[in-house]
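Q: Is it fine to ask for two folds in a single conversation?
A: Yes, each is treated on its own. Send the first.
Q: Here.
A: Result:
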Amino acid sequence: MAAESASAILRNQAIEVDLLDFVDWSGVECLNQSSGNSLFNALKQGYREDDGLILESDADEQLLIYIPFTQVVKLHSIAVKGPEEEGPKTVKLFSNKEHMGFSNVNDFPPSDTISLSPDKLQGKPIALKYVKFQNVRSLTVFIEDNQSGSEVTKVQKIALYGTTVETTDMKGLKKIEEH
């Protein structure tokens, strides 16, 4: 596909887009992030394209990221970019699991686990187990370790690709009066 854009991928007649516009920014959280190098550096448009801006772990190599969406989405792939040494290695994804912490993250089976080799840290989309991500209201991303086993994990970019799910806007419904 010569005309394929970087932010839209055509699959099975549905156009998959960067789901950034559907992130509920008021609910986004990241546990164990360095105060100077926060999640927004890796997630927000414009910031994540700048390799000088990174998300960096603080106390150890693990990061726990919670991303709620403003509407239900189907998640198809994730793109992760990071440095060869400190970039993420094992990434566990949990669909619709709220209020997870480091103390209970291993109590739940992940919807998918991605093992990133240094060549997969270039920011190219990696296909997920699509059947596990059909009605996603939120995504929890657990970065368990990094490439070198060092105390600090660095992420330059996280991008989520998929489609929105057509749903009924319950607020827009009006009660029908009986006559």
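Q: Second one now.
A: Result:
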Amino acid sequence: MDSQLTLINPEPPLELVLEKSSTPLNTRLLVNGKARYKVSTVDRDANITNVTDLRTNQVIATVQRRSFLSDKVKFPLRFGGKSLKKDDWMTPIKLDTGHEAWIINSESGKFLWRWDRALRMVEDTDQIIAFVKDEGPVFALCVKRSAESSLDEIIPGFIILEHRLRMGTKALRVAEGWGADERSTPLGTPLS
């Protein structure tokens, strides 16, 4: 008897499109054009960022950036609702390829954010569960349907890393401008 191979099309990922593709902060994440999550800084200095599920109006994660102490993350529905040091939850590592990565120590297990300018994805035991789609004008976080229960940890990880990447890019642009524009030198004199 011949065995038949049945091909099943995988379900398309959940696409969380950033309403403002220029920043991961102070934006809404849209699903099919409707706001699903809101990312907002809640203090004047932009040190505290909340992620709110707009279906329930419940804050699902808070990221607190601090200048001198460790940044903190808080998940009201995980870890007993207690704040954690960001580096305990999201541990930086260096891969054999030389790329940076972060291990997310989740209540449901560990997963890995692999990150560079071209490749931004979350993996769970070598299986991609989320990735960034950057096909202008669309900028979206795409998450496998089977990983939706971890969105409260995937979204903050994405926000932290995307913000870090964009701030690094901005710093490079400023540095390039510093050396290229004589008006921006400390003394206003051309570089020789």
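Q: Anything structural to flag on that second result?
A: Two points. The first strand starts at residue 14 and ends at 18. The first helix runs from residue 86 to 89.
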